[in-house]
Design a protein that fits this description.
alpha+beta; four-stranded antiparallel β-sheet; binds zinc ion
């Protein structure tokens, strides 16, 4: 079975792996395949269970706070509604997309694909459906939202009695199952079940690798649709350098307002208190919630900065045709792509505790101008790590290997 490594472009002959074995690319050291010993049936059970639990997690209250005989509850959607009503439109739309809509679509599509494969049906649109579910994986964030809930709970619990409600318990299980399905889904087995890899084109024929499913096809297929996942076949992602550069510049431009302007504003007995990212971290340390303080420092300061600096390094090294640290840069690129979604924790915390702190005249909470700037930094850097093509670093650094997509 031959595949084209999507990290460095090299053609690889993959052996049949036994359970719990890993295949590593000998050129860029990326993981090509990992078998986890779980069947498609187990992955299907996991996906359906997550999908089912998303309903109570969305429609039942997550947490509630009581003060002077009044009770306020937080639902997954109520933070979105309050943000929208307070005219934080970008924030409301993006939180709704990541925390509510994308999880339903992702697990709906995944359950459908795995059920069809399990039942032995292979309609032509199955690969396209699986590609969408794979692409939505990073954007469906019940697990990141759960961490936002834990931080919100920690902050509030220090000053007010907070109760976790039925929806909260369902969210905890759904988020754990979401993480489990990310860790255990054997994507290559599913791709093979949809459309098995074919024998290599005859020697000397130039080839092209699909960037999504890594199927190897003759180079003459460029521009047509991949027969397995239906993405348009390109030797490299189109305009990857320019698009990534534009998104990185936009990310840097918004990083400053995201850090110097407050993320949230509380009004306590008529007095406005504003919290920048750094104030939120300080507060957590003052409340002796050290793990949460370290967590927010990592997700809100370290990860966005690491993403922007890493992408800048990749772009500069392509520009200078650098042959150095290619394996390290490829690994970092994969890490940045994987970790980017966790930067949303602080924004989700605001969406969780805003509906809980609505006691007019006593205490109210809301987002502030830093929050939309920050979520846009997260989105721009996440999109940048998707538009970037790590194979360009190998093309630029090792031009002699550019024939690596050629079938020897
Ligand atoms: Zn590779
Ligand atoms: Zn494909």
């Amino acid at each position: 079975m031959t595949i084209a490594c999507s990290h460095c472009g090299t053609l690889e002959e993959l052996p049949q792996l036994a359970s719990a074995e890993v295949a590593i690319c000998p050129v860029c050291d990326s993981r090509l395949e990992r078998t986890n010993g779980r069947s498609i049936t187990a992955a299907l059970a996991c996906a359906i269970a997550t999908l089912v639990l998303l309903f109570p997690a969305n429609f039942l209250p997550l947490m509630s706070v009581s003060m002077l005989g009044m009770t306020r509850q937080s639902h997954l959607g109520s933070g979105v509604v309050i943000l929208w009503n307070h005219h934080w439109v970008i924030l409301a739309v993006l939180v709704a997309a990541f925390a509510v809509i994308a999880p339903f679509v992702r697990f709906g599509l995944l359950s459908t694909v795995l059920a069809m494969v399990h039942l032995g049906h292979r309609p032509r649109w199955l690969g396209r459906l699986f590609r969408w579910s794979v692409r939505l994986d990073r954007w469906a964030m019940p697990d990141v939202y759960l961490i936002g809930c834990i931080v919100g709970y920690g902050r509030l619990e220090a000053v007010l009695p907070v109760a976790i409600d039925a929806g909260g318990f369902c969210l905890i299980i759904a988020a754990l199952l979401c993480m489990l399905s990310r860790a255990t889904l054997d994507a290559r087995t599913v791709w093979r079940a949809i459309y098995p890899e074919r024998a290599l084109p005859s020697a000397g024929v130039a080839t092209i690798g699909c960037e999504v499913c890594e199927l190897v096809l003759p180079a003459t297929s460029e521009g047509s649709l991949c027969p397995r996942c239906a993405v348009r076949l390109r030797a490299r992602k189109p305009d990857a350098f320019v698009r990534t550069l534009a998104l990185v510049i936009a990310g840097y431009a918004l990083l400053l307002p995201a850090n110097i302007y407050p993320m949230s504003t509380d009004t306590q007995f008529g007095v406005r208190v504003q919290y920048r990212i750094v104030d939120g971290i300080e507060d957590l340390f003052h409340a002796h919630l050290y793990p949460l303080g370290v967590l927010i420092f990592c997700t809100s300061i370290a990860i966005p900065l690491l993403k922007l600096l890493g992408l800048t390094w990749f772009l500069v090294s392509i520009r200078h045709r650098s042959p150095h640290h290619l394996v390290l840069k490829t690994r970092l690129c994969h890490f940045i792509d994987e970790i980017g979604r966790w930067a949303n924790v602080d924004v989700f915390t605001i969406a969780v505790f805003t509906p809980l702190l609505q006691f007019p005249g006593i205490v109210t909470a809301g987002a502030s101008v830093g929050a939309p700037a920050f979520i846009l930094v997260v989105v721009f850097t996440m999109v940048a790590s998707r538009t970037f093509d790590p194979r360009l670093m190998w093309d630029a650094g090792l031009p002699l290997q550019s024939g690596q997509t050629e079938n020897p």
